[in-house]
Amino acid sequence: MILRTQSIHPLNDAGGQALGSGPWDLSFNTAASFVTNTNWQFYGGETADVSLPGCRAHRAELPLRDAGVGIAVLTAVVRGFVRRDTDRLGNFWVDLTRVVLYVLVPVSLIVALFLVSQGVVQTVTDSVTYATIGGGEQTLALGPVASQEALKHIGTNGGGFFNVNSAMPFENPTTLTNFVLMLSMLIIPAAKYFAILPAIFAATYGGALDGLNVMRLGTPESAIISAIVFNALIIPALVPLALRGVRYRPLGATPLLRRNLLVYGLGGLVVPFVGIKLIDLVVHGVLGA
């Protein structure tokens, strides 16, 4: 209905009012796609086939809800493995509300503010027309790009604001935005492993897992938090190393291999153990207090 009635939306400009109603079959296809997290769309932001209020309505709320539904369902599945003394899997609506309000919205807000600070477009104006050097005119599509791109990447949803997605400088203007957008797509999937696997293993194997605690971390909670904090610190620290060019040095294959094994091989083993252990000491002390 939103796509079919976009010509009468409130807060619409003249361009949006002139669009008229979208085709009924494509409107239904798009709505069903975004509800089910398929996120297929028949239009691009530059083509202006959808008004800005219509775009905001179905691309702001639905990515939050369908991503939240997936996490809530996964939570129920995990409870089925973990719980032994009850046949209850929890309340779906409570889980969905918690996921949206406590996870998706705060993280998306942080990412959106960062994108705006880097120059990503965030405005209620749908387009701007200006005179070119050649004497002609060019129209640039605008809108709440930063907020919707944050939702799209955090929830790993499709449906870009621009037709070329992150190849558009209005959406992805710097190297940092490109890195943050890539990292945003990994946050939720990676966090689910840290949350799910320890719970399943602890419930399935119980005290047998104590033998695997070779680092003697304080508690399962402090171990998970320490691993997350360590990764949150080490990944940004490695970004400058990855972006820096390689200096050419005339060095033989054997010395080069020995050096790389010493620096990256041994360092890659020692640094995580030491870092996570030190963080665990602090976290366990705070949780214990």
Give the helices and strands, then pairings.
Elements: H1 14-17, H2 24-35, H3 52-82, H4 92-117, E1 127-131, E2 137-141, H5 145-154, H6 175-205, H7 220-243, H8 253-288
Antiparallel strand pairs: 1-2
Helix pairs in contact: 3-4, 3-5, 3-6, 4-5, 5-6, 7-8
Task: Describe the structure using short key phrases.
single chain, 289 residues, mainly alpha, 2 domains, two-stranded antiparallel ribbon
Can you describe this structure?
The protein is mainly alpha-helical. It is built from 8 helices and 2 strands; from the N terminus they run ααααββαααα. The model has no long low-confidence stretch (mean pLDDT 77). 24% of the residues are buried. The chain folds into 2 domains: 2-193, no CATH class; 205-288, no CATH class. The radius of gyration is 24 Å and the shape is flat. The longest helix has 36 residues, at 253-288.
| Whole-number count of domains | 2
Percentage of residues in DSSP E strands: under 5%
Main sheet overview: 2 strands, antiparallel
Enumerate the spans where pLDDT stays under 50 for 5 or more consecutive residues.
Answer: none
Order of helices and strands: HHHHEEHHHH
- Radius of gyration, in Å, reads 24 Å
Number of strands: 2
Strand order of the largest sheet: 1-2
Mean pLDDT: 77
Briefly note the structural class of the backbone.
mainly alpha
Helix content: 55-70%
Number of helices: 8
The end-to-end distance, rounded to whole angstroms, is 54 Å
Envelope shape: flat
